[in-house]
Amino acid sequence: MSIADRLKIVQGRMARAAERAGRRAEEVTLVAVSKTRTVAEVEEALRAGARVLGENRVQEAEEKHGVVSLPSLWHLVGHLQTNKAKKAVEIFDLIHSVDSLHLAQEIDRRAGRMGKVADVLVQVNTSGEGSKSGVGPDEALDLIGAVSGLRSVRVQGLMTIGALGAEGDRARPFFVALREVRDRVAAAQIPGVSMGHLSMGMTGDFEAAIEEGATLVRVGTAIFGERP
User: Fold this and answer.
1) Predicted confidence (pLDDT) at residue 228 exceeds the cutoff of 90
2) What distance in Å separates the CA atoms of residue 211 and residue 87, rounded to the nearest whole number?
3) Phi, psi of 154 (to 5 degrees)
4) Nearest Cα to 181, choosing from 192, 163, 193, 170?
5) Residue 166 has pLDDT above 80, yes or no
6) Are 3 and 45 in contact (CB under 8 A)?
7) How confident is the model over 89-118, as pLDDT tens digits?
8) Alpha-carbon separation of residue 130 from 82, 83, 103, 158, 200 (angstroms)
9) Checking DSSP bridges between strand 73-76 and strand 52-55, what pairing results, if any?
10) Can you tell me the distance from the alpha carbon of 100 to that of 80, in angstroms, rounded to the nearest whole number?
11) What whole-number distance in Å separates Cα of residue 70 and Cα of residue 189?
């Protein structure tokens, strides 16, 4: 099956999940996670209708970004080290994985030097797993309040990753938890902070994520096939 065929199937599943939740399909953006994929595969997905690419590593994204010729937006969906912040600000339209004030400050410093405002999501560890990055649900509001004081960083919402091995409905509690954090932050009405995005859901659970309010779903294998 071609990448175009898989992409069409994913888009159909997304639309049906949105319909089940009483939402419009246009409310959910597909982030085609292209880590380890070749430039040819990435461009095939873009020609088939993908618009947003998700990369896990800054260095890999940098190599592709310079040669992918088709119009696209680039999102960083993996963990960001502070020493990669400068390049991340240069490449990415949205950084999904801000998990500390220190990282936000480094992004702010780099973006300020470039005369840019970096759009970011705050990563929340809703599963409590030690292997995952992100602040705890009870810490998110304080972190966002601190980040809101930075001049060159703009919080646009939240991101989470479900528990390891929890797919489909088993991942739903982690998405509900993120939505609840979103609601608490939104109620605080922090100046300059938007809660417009919930980035949650991957190949194994994106339909449940959409039903629970995802605006960004990060799908790789279902589009590009299994990795070699």
Assistant:
1) no
2) 34
3) -125, 115
4) 193
5) no
6) yes
7) 999 999 999 999 999 999 999 999 999 999
8) 20, 22, 19, 19, 18
9) parallel
10) 10
11) 38
Question: DSSP secondary structure string, 170-221?
Answer: GGHHHHHHHHHHHHHHHHHT-TT----EEE---TTTHHHHHHTT-SEEEE-H
Contacts of residue 64, defined as CB under 8 A and 6 or more positions apart, other chains included, come to 34, 39, 42, 55
Cα(226)–Cα(214) distance, rounded to whole angstroms? 24
What pLDDT shows up at residue 226? 87
Under 8 Å between Cβ of 128 and 160: no
The bridge status of strand 153-159 relative to strand 197-199 is parallel
| Beta strands 197-199 and 52-55, pairing class | unpaired
Amino acid in position 225: G
Q: Dig out the tokens for 55 from the structure.
A: 């990369």
In the beta sheet, which residues pair with residue 153? 118
> 3-224, what's its fold?
TIM Barrel (3.20.20)
Q: In this model, does residue 132 exceed pLDDT 90?
A: no
Sort 62 into a burial class: Cβ within 10 Å, 0-12 / 13-18 / 19+.
Answer: middle
* Number of DSSP helices (H) and strands (E) in the chain, helices first: 9, 8
Query: Could you give the 3-state DSSP secondary structure of residue 166?
Result: coil
Which parts of 54-152 fold into alpha helices (H)?
58-65, 85-91, 101-114, 140-147
Structure confidence at residue 129 (pLDDT): 82
* pTM of this structure: 0.96
Contact 131, 164 (CB under 8 A): yes
Amino acid at 59: Q
